[in-house]
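Let us practice reading a record.
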Amino acid sequence: MQLLRDNLTLWTSDMQVSALSFC
């Protein structure tokens, strides 16, 4: 469960970085 949570956090952070890159 912890691993899933970490993956979700990492995925969210990656999406935020991608969004900033597109801006």
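A brief commentary: The mean pLDDT is 90.
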